[in-house]
Amino acid sequence: MVDTLNAPQIIEHINNPLNYTPFDVKWIPCSAKLVVTGQTPRAKGIIQIYQMNKGKLEVVSEFHKDYGFKCSTFGAASFASRDLAVGDFEGNLMIYNLEKGTPSFEIKKAHKSIINAMDGIGGTGNIGPAELITAGRDGSAKMWDPRMNKAVMEFEPAPGEKVLPECWAVSFGNSYNNEERCVGLGYDNGDVKLYDLRTTTLKWETNLKNGICSIEFDRKDIPMNKMVVTTLESKLHVFDLRTQHPDLGFAGLSDAAHNSTIWGSKFLPQNRDIFISMGGNGAVNLYKYNYPNQRSVMDENNIPKGVIGSLTVLNTKDITTQPIIGFDWHPDKMGLACLVALDQSVKVELVTRLNLY
Q1: Domain locations in the chain as residue ranges
Q2: The domain at 10-356 falls in which architecture?
Q3: Half-sphere exposure of 270 toward its Cβ, with a 13 Å CA cutoff?
Q4: Which residue has better confidence, 163 or 39?
Q5: CA-based diameter of the chain, in Å?
Q6: pTM
């Protein structure tokens, strides 16, 4: 039972209707501005930049492209440039200069079809080189160096597969120095794969029986600690990544939530033990992960195996009647968040009392 009296409160600050379908929203680093990417009724791409001003969102600039935008990230951008990487419904990859409203980098047909998801690393204070990774409907995931016009690494489906699984989710992690880096991939058939980019090897894989909607490391720039994976059919999975057993893999737990697809999860930048889930029922759940007394124990063969902790639901809030498909915590202001939903709206939320956890 959720203690809603003493728990963090989730308060709607701004509710702004849109005349197009939004697919992603991000805070612009070091600002009170946010950028919404989506698709107009005529299937054109649209990017809108909003400024928070006296309890309202004001459009600062807006620009259009030939095809709808599906995903975006500032992960590979420097604080100086704050360029936004976007993927569209035609499989094109672009990096936008938001001041000029034009792409500074563009790769036509980076994927054969929709770019379902993307992530970036190496910018905004991260360690290591700036890189992007994209997930495509064509079944592949591709890694990009923004200085090069072709993929530096490709993760392709196994040859001979009769039905190619779509890649639905990607995420960088384990980038705690200039050499180490991992990437997590999630597919519509329930496969989760974790690759070590330094050794270019498959580190771990499992199948969660439902399509993978998102993968999120609690931090990108620390040794792998934990990871949340959300799926179709109301499932949320947490894995402890500190101890990998040769046979059992990583310790994990699963939880049911929202009674619908869980579109994604986002860890609080100021506290890696708190994260929020985005429900297909229009609600968000705020979770806290509780570590066990021991994070690993020895099995009967004296090999260490991980021990998983537990989840506490701090609060839940019905925000809209349509799926919430994009969410972003402000990196500098604890508890300030923005989200977009399929009711064609962008909202700014305030989450209180997070400093108490």
Answers
A1: 10-356
A2: 7 Propeller (2.130)
A3: 15
A4: 39
A5: 63
A6: 0.94
